[in-house]
Design brief:
4-stranded antiparallel β-sheet; about 60% helix; alpha+beta; single chain
Length: about 550
């Protein structure tokens, strides 16, 4: 606490001035004491000389008559009357002490002694010295007198010094400390950004006045600068908002995730011809009978319905770390990768096959929620299918320098599209390829069944297709498990051209679960192939 008080300017200035005044006062007292000592010493010396001469004059006649008794009486009276006289001695012409009084031993401690000769001085007679008087003075009285003087002066000096210090403190406080404190508060307000209030410029021409005027000029400059900065900030905010809108508009056409896969930090860095080969999970989805639905609505209602549907389908894709590559009318093509940055809250380390399949199942659940709302509003329900496949593709940019687009090229894209077409034939919700099933971390966690083993259009190799029915109701899933053996037996009989057996299995399955459209599809297909073979046996190829 004491250190904090000492840090204040007023305290330090008062201490400095007081210390200076103390030094001056001490020096003045010392000089006064020295002068007083000199005056007293000279006065006592004159007194000592006068006493010695007086004793010498009184002792001349007794000296001539050799009256030692009178001489002794003189010296005794002198030591008794003069308290400052310590020792008096009268010596003869030969220097022998004739009489003396006082303490000789004590007198030897004092250096001040006064000698007066005893002379015979008469008219017409030469001066003759018959003896001398030696008077020793106690000069300690000088110190005692000075001590009393110093004590008296010290009290006055201390009182004067105290009063002068108070006067100096009040003067410094009013003339220096208080204006500096006020200026300090105003500068502190400036540092906190409160620059609207003008500085209190004191009407004085000293350094403090010039400092206050300089701070006021600085405040005005800051106000002018801030006004300019505010105008620039407003303009920058407008430009930034404009750039952000343009960026967001651009990202709508070129996903940020696509730019990341091409090794670009943003979509604006994509150049014509950029390409990258990656293994991706491709998702295709399409609305069944969309043309018929659109014919019943005006264009505006069609767009509103379609945008509402696409927004709902986009949510689970993004939530599971995928992104929509493009919207093709009512169809959706989305990609999931095992590399790159995560653009969702989901863990990107989960295999893309799992994330893609979970997104497909969530899309089915989202569509059911949309249809429930549509039924309540008296609107048409939507039906769609989702297909998934995985494999290596080439991601790149195509077009011209004036019109750029991104695309994905590769066999997995075609396979996923072909499998998605099967969802219409089988009336299935989610179909996946054998390749995607083998890339699942735990295939047993999903309920699925084989629905096709055939050569897809545009391919030379056979593809096994699975239906994943986790999104169905518990009753529907139970019927799927119940008819699974009939479906597998019918597909195997159809592959071996046992059309009667295949037809029997498919019809039995359709009887048990008439809502499962795959049995009706395969029953018609078996009957069609049976008739074709009956007409032309060579058509088996």
């Amino acid at each position: 606490m004491a250190f904090v008080v000492f840090q204040k300017l007023g305290t330090r200035l008062t201490l400095v001035v007081s210390f200076g005044l103390l030094i001056i006062a001490t020096g003045s007292v010392a000089l006064a004491v020295h002068a007083e000592r000199s005056i007293l010493t000279q006065e006592f010396r004159r007194e000592g000389v006068a006493v010695a001469k007086t004793v010498a004059a009184m002792s001349l006649e007794p000296m001539l008559s050799s009256d030692v008794t009178v001489l002794q009486t003189h010296v005794n009276q002198l030591t008794a009357v003069q308290g400052r006289v310590v020792h008096v001695a009268i010596r003869g012409r030969d220097g022998v002490v004739l009489v003396q009084a006082g303490n000789k031993e004590a007198s030897e401690r004092y250096e001040e002694r006064f000698v007066a000769p005893i002379d015979i001085a008469a008219a017409g007679v030469p001066r003759e010295t018959v003896g001398e008087v030696v008077v020793r003075y106690d000069m300690a009285i000088v110190s005692q007198l000075l001590e009393r003087v110093v004590r008296g002066a010290s009290g006055g000096v201390v009182l004067s010094l105290l009063l002068l210090s108070l006067f100096v403190w009040f003067f410094l406080r009013r003339a220096v400390i208080q204006p500096i404190a006020e200026l300090d508060q105003e500068v502190a307000a400036l540092s906190r950004g409160l620059i609207e209030q003008p500085i209190n410029v004191v009407p004085r021409q000293d350094e403090l006045g010039r400092l206050a005027r300089s701070v006021e000029e600085l405040r005005r400059s800051l106000c002018a600068s801030l006004d300019g900065l505010e105008a620039r900030r407003t303009e920058l905010e407008r430009l930034n908002h404009q750039l952000l809108n343009e960026k967001n508009a651009f990202v709508r056409f070129v996903p940020t995730a696509f730019a990341d896969l091409l090794g670009r930090t943003s979509a604006s860095e994509i150049k014509l011809g950029d390409s990258e080969k990656r293994v991706v999970t491709v998702l295709f989805s399409d609305i069944r009978g969309f043309t018929s639905i659109a014919e019943q609505l005006d264009p505006a209602d069609t767009l509103r319905m379609l945008n509402h549907y696409l927004a709902r389908m986009d949510e689970p894709i993004r939530e599971h770390g995928g992104f929509v590559d493009k919207f093709m009318g009512d169809a959706i093509m989305a990609l999931f990768t095992d590399s790159g940055r995560s653009h969702s809250s989901r863990d990107i380390t989960i295999p893309s096959a799992d994330r893609g399949l979970r997104a497909a199942l969530d899309m089915r659940r989202g569509l059911k929620s949309l249809n429930e709302t549509a039924i309540q509003q008296g609107k048409s329900v939507l039906r769609s299918g989702v297909a998934l496949h995985i494999g290596p593709v080439v991601l790149g940019s195509i077009g011209t320098v004036r019109r750029l687009d991104t695309t994905v090229i590769g066999d997995p894209v075609n396979v996923a599209a072909r499998i998605e077409a099967l969802t219409k034939d089988f009336e299935s919700e989610v179909l996946i390829s054998e390749e995607l099933r083998s890339n699942l971390s735990r295939p047993g966690d999903y309920e699925m069944r084989v629905v096709a083993r055939s050569v897809l259009r545009g391919r030379h190799e056979s593809t096994t297709v699975y239906e994943v029915y986790d999104s169905l109701t518990a009753q529907q899933r139970g019927l799927r498990r119940q008819t699974q053996e009939l479906l597998e037996a019918g597909i195997e009989a159809l592959e071996e051209s046992c059309f009667s057996e295949a037809t029997r299995c498919f019809r039995e399955g359709d009887r048990v679960d008439p809502e499962d459209g795959i049995f009706a599809h395969y029953a018609q297909r078996a009957e069609r192939q049976r008739r074709l073979v009956a007409v032309s046996p060579d058509s088996m190829s």
